[in-house]
Design brief:
By secondary structure, the protein is α+β, with helices and mostly antiparallel strands. The protein has 20 helices and 21 strands.
């Protein structure tokens, strides 16, 4: 029998008015995610005899259920995996429908943020399958069990997710299929309420039974295409069937005694590498970590890197005039670093190198395998489109293209857009693994990677302290946003150097992302998880 609650009992207050202390989590096997139930799903796979890849896939599947505000079955995904001997990079972002041309969108008034004409082929399911087939140990269907259980039997919605859910519902409630799936009773679920989705559970079962075939070439693919046609979209069965996840390796940059690895473009990780290379040339490390000189130089390097990113980053097959190798050329980064004025904020444009809404998780196991994985619907719930009866919520990655004629990222048929979500990995210079890490949050991600690398790899902060530390974000021109906990003296010093600093009160979960880090320490791991997004690490 349930305990009866007196009628005069006040509603639970979900505010967290007091500063709290969180310690790093340590163990020989570890999973760190943005949601506790998903972390536990990964841990269950490790306890069942699986490896870090199995844990990462199970956690990723669970996150589509318990954190739909950041990802879904219609997400894209990327991964970097150390298998114990070598590093692998996986790009499972989707390409545009074959009908997408500049003329197609000119007739429709531009690139939309919502609806089917913002949806590229979703790639996350293909990431799970590719990782499992190449590097996993457990049967693929086993990995879906926790997610199916959460979807069918329900889970309590956390306060942070409830707040994001309400914002998403206010914006996207009119999109086709959204209210039916995500607004039971006509509203978003409140914190502490149990949410269930039988449709999501059945779809996960079908994906698990067919190892993704139903999603790209079967029943689910047909349902997606029928819904697209009914609502003015261009997605076809051929678009879905032609999708594949690609093993692409990594691009890297030496930073002190470490080498930081990112997925090659179309992801924005190359901006992190460029900024780190500039900071290395600039001589970062001479002042304390949170000193204004260190923060100023980091901001300036990031602005220079982002200017190049916005000009050149695209589907790697379209980057012919300026390649990733050109952007990471040592001499070029030295030239860019020379533009950093130690006393004054700049507003840089792009250089001219010579030719030559997201969830992140990390997992590691006792065998030495380490996984850096990310998947996302892009802007919160993404396009807002949900295919009826399936629980498939779809990303809005098409909005990442441009209509600028001749730009490397100009929209075109069967092309990957410039992408925000990026996993990161650090190796020791001797070739041994060091850290899997990532920071969620749209354009914050490459900036967050820079800040995590600086804190842990250059200054030796522990992963939890690095995740907790207040962050900054370049906002354009000389604009910089900082979190409320930022040192007021540093804020004043930045303003004195010409930075246009905005303190964003109470907006950390939206604007500054959430970080997860797993650092290898001998035969065990040290994990940090970000409280901004209910981050949680579990280990044994």
């Amino acid at each position: 029998m349930n305990a009866r609650i007196p009628a005069d009992t006040p509603a639970l207050d979900w505010a967290l008015p007091y500063a709290s202390h969180r310690s790093a989590v340590m163990g020989r096997n570890v999973v760190s995610t943005s949601q506790p139930l998903a972390a536990q799903a990964g841990l269950r796979m490790l306890l069942a005899g699986g490896n870090a890849v199995d844990a990462a896939i199970a956690a990723a599947m669970a996150l589509t259920v318990v954190e739909p505000t950041g990802c879904g079955l219609g997400s894209d995904g990327f991964a970097i995996v150390w298998d114990g001997k070598e590093l692998h990079g996986l790009n499972a972002s989707g390409r545009s429908p074959a009908a997408w041309t500049p003329a197609y969108f000119a007739e429709r008034g531009g690139l939309p943020e919502t609806g089917w004409n913002a949806v590229t082929v979703p790639g996350a399911v293909s990431a799970w399958v590719a990782l499992s087939k190449r590097l996993g140990k457990l049967p693929f269907a086993k990995l879906a069990e926790p997610a199916i259980d959460y979807a069918r039997n329900g889970f309590p919605v956390s306060p942070t997710i409830a707040r994001l859910w309400a914002l998403g519902a206010a914006k996207l409630g009119c999109q086709p299929g959204f209210a039916e799936c995500f607004m039971p009773g006509g509203r978003a679920p409140r914190a502490g309420e149990i949410f269930r989705s039988e449709a999501h559970a059945r779809t996960l079962e079908l994906i698990a039974q067919t190892e993704g075939e139903a999603f790209y070439r079967g029943t689910l693919a047909r349902q997606m295409v029928e819904h697209s046609r009914a609502h003015g979209g261009a997605m076809t069965e051929d678009d879905l069937a032609s999708h594949q996840a690609d093993w692409v390796g990594t691009v890297s940059q030496r930073f002190g005694d470490s080498v930081v690895h990112e997925i090659p473009p179309n992801g924005q990780g190359i901006a992190t590498l460029m900024a780190l290379g500039m900071l290395e040339s600039h001589g970062i490390g001479g002042q304390p970590l949170d000193h204004v000189d260190t923060v100023h130089a980091s901001i300036e390097a990031m602005k220079l890197a982002l200017a190049d990113l916005h000009q050149y980053n695209a589907d790697i097959d379209a980057m012919q005039a300026v390649t990733p190798r050109d952007l990471l050329d040592a001499d070029y980064l030295v030239q860019r670093a020379q533009l950093i004025d130690a006393a004054q904020a700049g507003d840089p444009g792009h250089g001219t190198p010579r030719p030559g809404g997201t969830v992140y998780l990390a997992a590691a196991d006792a065998s030495g395998m380490m996984v850096s994985f990310i998947q996302s619907n892009y802007m919160g719930f993404g396009s807002g489109v949900v295919v009826p009866g399936t629980g498939i919520s779809l990303q809005n990655r098409g909005h990442g293209f441009t209509l600028t004629p001749g730009h490397a990222n100009e929209v075109a048929p069967r092309k990957r857009p410039s992408h925000t979500i990026i996993p990161a990995f650090a190796m020791h210079a001797d070739g041994t693994p060091q850290m899997a890490f990532g920071v969620m949050g749209g354009p914050m991600q490459s900036q967050g990677h820079l800040q995590m690398a600086l804190r842990v790899l250059r200054y030796g902060q522990n992963p939890q302290a690095a995740a907790d530390a207040p962050r900054w974000r370049v906002t354009g021109g000389k604009g910089v946003a900082v979190e409320p906990a930022f040192d007021p003296a540093v804020v004043a010093a930045l303003r004195a150097r010409g930075h246009e600093v905005t303190v964003e009160e109470g907006n950390g979960v939206f604007a500054f992302g959430g970080a997860q880090l797993v650092l290898r320490d001998g035969g065990s791991y040290i994990a940090g998880s970000d409280p901004r997004k209910d981050g949680h690490a579990v280990a044994f």
